[in-house]
Amino acid sequence: MTEAKPAKNQLRVGRLVKAHGLKGALKLELYTDDPDGRFTPGATFTLQVPEQSEWHGKTITVREFRWMNAQAVVFFEGVDDRNAADTLVRAILWIDEDEDAPAEDDAWYDHQLIGLDVVRDGAVVGTVARVDHFPAQDLLIVASGENEILVPFVSAIVPEVDIAGGRVVVTPPPGLFEELADEPAPAEAPAADEPAETSETTD
Question: Which domains does the chain have, with CATH numbers?
Answer without folding.
Answer: 10-96 (2.40.30.60), 110-169 (2.30.30.240)
